Amino acid sequence: xxxxxxxxxxxxxxxxxxxxxxxxxxxxxxxxxxxxxxxxxxxxxxxxxxxxxxxxxxxxxxxxxxxxxxxxxxxxxxxxxxxxxxxxxxxxxxxxxxxxxxxxxxxxxxxxxxxxxxxxxxxxxxxxxxxxxxxxxxxxxxxxxxxxxxxxxxxxxxx
Length: 159
Description:
Blueprint: E1 7-12, H1 15-26, E2 30-34, E3 37-41, E4 48-53, E5 73-77, H2 80-90, E6 93-94, E7 111-114, E8 120-125
Parallel strand pairs: 1-4, 5-8
Antiparallel strand pairs: 2-3, 3-4, 6-7, 7-8
């Protein structure tokens, strides 16, 4: 192993506002903050999502290839119908889902949304192998994560 993932960093026009959105969506606290860089994580010694100020930010326009998504998050939920109005109330907006190619499995598929800065994310039904959403830290045995290290970004993180 060469290294370990520290944070997934999303560019955005308002880091604190987007961090609050994901903090509410995932139930993770804001663990580190400065005006141009904010982190949400399970706790202050685990990896998480970071939001970095991008003054010239242009939101993706999914599914338009002229401004592609480049990255999206899948967020598992127990019940899609219960989760959808909650993410909409947080400021997400529903995006259209392209037609599914014939021959693909049917059943409840992902529901695609954009966060307040325009990044696409999906709500997906919790897979049977995953622990219930309400379990501490999402780990099967309920123990805290084991990713030591500061949640503060290193100098020039993500730049």
